[in-house]
Amino acid sequence: MSKILSERLRYRIESLYEKGLTTKEIATRIGLSYITVYRQTRLKKRINPETNKPFKSGTEYDNYITRQRINPETNEPFESKLEYNHYKEIERMSRRENKYFGSFITKRIKALGINQYILAAEVGITRQAINNYVKGRTLPTRKNFNKMLSALGVKNKPKILENLVLTQYLRL
User: Fold this and answer.
1) Most CB within 10 Å of its CB: which of 10, 70, 122, 136?
2) Please, which residues have CB within 8 angstroms of residue 63's CB and are 6 or more apart in sequence?
3) How far apart are CA 130 and CA 101, in angstroms?
């Protein structure tokens, strides 16, 4: 979810940028993400090739970039970031490793007699995150992956889970 910046914070970002600080330096100094600072500085200077005007917003820029990608199913460009994200979600859900991990979590939860809420509390994440893992939509970070296996009482990782860790983090 995007963070709404105060006018004061926007002004501070712009003034630091005008003084010659890089986007990364500003982000570090103020304590914001690089992309937040980028959208307030450099993105505003980018020209939309479709309109020959600066991008009005980060959403407009994201949709433009997404339209440059080709949907392999239709051989047509994606129409929006929403359509692209939906395609990627379905792709992730169909991966063998994601399906296995989801069913593995479900089986361990049942075997332990707990539910997703309890597991989420033990791992320190939301129930929705657990649900996304079960459905194969997303995979946990390495830290949460290890916490989850510990909370599920897994001492020896099955080979496919070991491979999941390797393939997931090699993609980053």
Assistant:
1) 136
2) 80, 81
3) 11
* pLDDT digit string, tens, across residues 4-44: 788 899 899 989 999 999 999 999 999 999 988 988 888 87
Side-chain half-sphere exposure of 100, counting CA atoms within 13 A = 12
Task: Tell me if 109 sits within 8 A of 152, measured CB to CB.
Answer: yes
What are the CA-CA distances from residue 143 to residues 69, 80, 161, 169 (Å)?
Answer: 32, 32, 14, 11
DSSP 91: H
First to last CA, the chain: 21
Helix (H) or strand (E) holding 77: strand 76-77
> Does the pTM exceed 0.70?
no
Which residues, other chains included, contact 107 with Cβ-Cβ below 8 Å and sequence gap of 6+?
A: none
